[in-house]
Hints:
This protein is an alpha+beta fold. The chain is 26% helix and 33% strand.
Amino acid sequence: MTNKIKLENLTYYYRDKKAVDNISLSLHSGKFLTILGPSGCGKTTVLKLIGGYLSPTKGSIFIDDIDITSTIACSRKIGMVFQNYVLFPHLSARKNIAFPLEIRKLPKNECEKKVDAISELIGLTQKEIERKPSELSGGQQQRVALARALVFEPHLLLLDEPLANLDKELKTKLRSEIRRLQKDIKITTIMVTHDHEEALPNSDLIGVMDHGKLMEVNDPKIIYDNPHSVFVANFLGETNIIPANFLNISRNGMAHIRPEKIKIGTYATDCNWKKNGIITSITFMGTDFLIDLKTTEGFHFKILSREPPLSTIGSTITIGIETEAIWLIPDNLKDLK
Ligand code: ATP
């Protein structure tokens, strides 16, 4: 498989503020990469550098092995969707979608055909595309933004928190629609978000950023189960970070166990590692129950259980962990002498 996009030592400073710190990365053609990270870690800046809206202080950007670092934005053939849609308010949705074709001077009838085809693919009706953005819902506006980003058949699609302004139900719907569309048209895509729930089910690869650095890139399941650092483990969802030696492992360092992998009560009976603890809280999460427990040694554990716990807050229960559910975080691991 070929590399569609490659970043080499990409670095960017806003005056003296380093926003992107020496990022190198490559993404194969047709893949969907999600970059996750806390607010201000540099996600949007990375997209702006790839899109050509900013020029890197240092480093290079390649598309199909061609160095495009100095290519101007409109010649890069990259579609971009921003968090706040950035549609032209005075133009109809149709005119908004046609805009990238018009600036490329495509004949009018070809423009119309392409706008109709992409609108249908994205689920916008003929009636909807005749309306102005203010006459459309948030979800419809985001579909228009997506249609505008795709209508000129770009090499690469960049999505900057495209679902951030939508309600949860619409978010879930559009998220899977975007993924289906991305797979259907096989467009290489980079999305940024700070929401791991958005990233994990819909990506071929997940990258996690912190303070301008790309901490790790991996397959969603691997990065979720076997992260390389405590930061990445925490960023991808609830976890338990416990000293390895407390789990009877002869290493100095931290282990991580996801809450859904810890067993309680009778389910814990056959586990190699078992402890008693007192339940300190029980929270119903919609489908699962999140149980907080404190062991007699003072360690806190979070456990996710499908079934409501049989015990109440303040009572003692047994928790158990299978050896294969424990992941030793490679950062700062040392063997005990
Ligand atoms: P968010 O998730 O909040 O959108 P982000 O991860 O996308 O954040 P960026 O917008 O890329 O982060 O910003 C990275 C850093 O650069 C932040 O510290 C931000 O304050 C700073 N920054 C962004 N834009 C500018 C600018 N125009 N001038 C100066 N500093 C900026």
